[in-house]
Amino acid sequence: MGSLVDNLTLGFQTAFTLQNLLYCFFGCLLGTLIGVLPGIGPIATIAMLLPATYALPPVAALIMLAGIYYGAQYGGSTTAILVNLPGESSSVVTMLDGYQMARKGRAGAALSVAAIGSFIAGCVGTLILAGFAAPLAELAFKFGPAEYFSLMVLGLIGAVVLASGSIIKAIAMIVLGLLLGLVGTDVNTGTSRFAFGIPELSDGIGFISVAMGVFGFAEIIVNLDMKEDREVFTSKVKGLLLSWTDFKDSFPAIVRGTAIGSVLGILPGGGALLASFASYTVEKKLAKNPNPKFGEGNIRGVAGPESANNAGAQTSFIPLLTLGIPPNAVMALMVGAMTIHNIQPGPQVMTSNPALFWGMIASMWIGNLMLVILNLPLIGMWVQLLKVPYRLLYPAILMFCCIGVFSVNNNSFDVLITVLFGVLGIVFIKVGAEPAPLLLGFILGPMMEENLRRAMLLSRGDPTVFFTRPLSLTMLIMAAALLAIIALPQIAKRREETFVEDGVAE
Amino acid sequence: MRIKDYKDFYAGVMFIVFGGLTVWLSTTYNLGTAARMGPGYFPSVLGGVLVFLGAIVLIKSLGKAEEGVERANTKSMVIFIAMMVLSLGAGFVGLAGPNGALAIGTVAGCVLAFFYGERSLGLVLGAVAIFGLFLKGLGVIVCVLLLVFISAYASHEFKWKETTISAVVLAIAAWAIFVKGLGLQMPTWPDVPELQRMFQSDVKPAAVEAPADAKK
């Protein structure tokens, strides 16, 4: 493996072909287009647009997907600022001050600072990703099945920490997800499990069906049932340029947000949501006599969380690319996308297909750049899109979803299963069980079973293997510590307060 | 015993039902030993854990009701369960080939939801189910028109003229993007032999289409 510079050079050579740049551009464009629609977060956006990448070669497909992801994130922030409707949970924080800025006629400044903060954070995140990838992948080769199993336990527990609401319900959702992931043919014995004699089910449930049903369809139905008026600040978007005071105020927040986001993104279960919450809390604590106050349109309340969220989004690729373990639901979708292109995410990607690996890292940076140079000038277009009434938008969204699901296997069965998951998604919303941990469990289910079986086989049925191997033990202790921390009464109360206070009571 | 928190109560019931079903279904698979786990081992353990977690959620939801706690809608819960039982049940029985039965059950579930208070759920998901069921038989143009009309009817501000325009535009766009542009395999116009095959109960037309190599 060459030096960091060599690797990045290879990456940029791969990504800087006209074809790949175009795909990255289209990815960003499409991602923003769908992501800007109210109520549609990155998970639903990626699931919807995934079919558009099937026909592409793997490198181009992944580059386009990375573009879609960043576009969707930025689109979500735009909606949060202009409409006060979060497209995704990590935009909730942006909404607090961003929307207030828009109400005061400073929507342009809010959108600019979000884009600039995201770009700076994205650059740093890319560098961290490139720097950490090689040593972590080395470490990954020392991992046996026991370590992988413990790592997945840690990741899943981490996912619980950031789910709002009841911890027990979140764990139960993970278990339910793991179980859904097991539907289909058992790899070791060839037994068809939970397939009810339906041949399509022996292949397992498609992850797109789960994601689209639970996140896409369910959200559309919930939006339809809410009849509230939205106030869109469309005419007031001007003054994209930041004033010197804005810049002076927001720059330290961007730097802090980037640092927080980069660290939290790497942690299993971390990622964009946790990062933006943490950054907002820090900014609020650090500001002495903020003017205007936080929650009333302070630019730092937009700059910090937006940077943190993008840095976290970037560094959460690290566990995925080096260990093959997705740290959150979006990355779980990326695993699915990579598998469709016959790439098994993990440390071997870097050695067996360096052009793909470094090309993807480079394209993430390009994706971030695209967002700044394309999306800011195009902001008027996205605003126009927000003016289109929802009653015209959602049938179109449904159509893209349906054709997308159908085209995965060219099969009407997948569409019907998605309908069932749509019903389940509504049930989850009605009973207050957050679905993101379910998707993560769904992807990890087969991997977890596989590694558990292998570990137990190697140890001849001795379960202490998870505690005697130091790496595995460390991760299990970390998982137990995490659980203990959030279960402590004071912290449980604090956690509840943070979510409620910052407007995420749901 | 009173129910304190309806959301948690139903969540607990849901987890217990799913966990219980898993454990029950897993009994038909070989358990194996800890060293050589059979296909039933991991799911039975997880199913048990799910039942346990569900029981905790359920027990915590019981107690004296506080003022102002929202009551969850029992009727809609019954409808959701009925929908799932209808479609999975029909799929399990497998009349008219597994796909046909699953589709008919799913559509029936959506119709039920539409008439019993879950209007937008029934219309949106029903439109999707019909789209999935008929895409191979009726082709992309007709299916998109159906999908847009049925789903748009769920909106409170439904207008015939507006919907007609958007349906036609979307149908043409879908054809141009997916059939012409991306070259996805789906018929443009209705395909009569395929339609006839769909409703023959003895042959299983859709099921033979090599699902194994599509994914691996």
In words, what does this structure look like?
The complex is a heterodimer of chains A (506) and B (216). By secondary structure, chain A is mainly α. Chain A has one domain (4-501). Helix content of chain A is 73%, strand content 1%. Chain A has 23 helices and two strands. Chain A has a two-stranded antiparallel sheet with strand order 1-2. In chain A, strand 1 (184-185) and strand 2 (192-193) form a beta hairpin. The longest helix of chain A has 34 residues, at 107-140. The model of chain A is unreliable at 500-506 (pLDDT under 50). With 216 residues, chain B is mostly helical. Chain B has a domain at 1-72. In chain B, helix 1 (6-26) packs antiparallel against helix 2, helix 4 (97-115) crosses helix 5 and helix 5 crosses helix 6. Chain B starts with 5 loop residues before the first helix and ends with a helix. Chains A and B meet through helix 8, helix 9, helix 18, helix 19 and helix 20 of A and helix 1, helix 2, helix 3, helix 4 and helix 5 of B.
Contiguous uncertain segments of 5+ residues of chain B: 201-216
Structural classification of chain A: mainly alpha
**Cα-atom radius of gyration of chain B:** 22 Å
Mean pLDDT of chain B: 75
Q: Ranges of chain A with pLDDT <50 over ≥5 residues?
A: 500-506
Biggest sheet overview of chain B: none
Give the largest chain-chain interface (CB within 8 Å). Answer: A-B, 79 and 92 residues
Straight-line distance between termini of chain B: 51 Å
Number of strands of chain A: 2
| Rg over C-alpha atoms of chain A, rounded to the nearest angstrom | 22 Å
Number of strands of chain B: 0
The helix/strand order of chain A is HHHHHHHHEEHHHHHHHHHHHHHHH
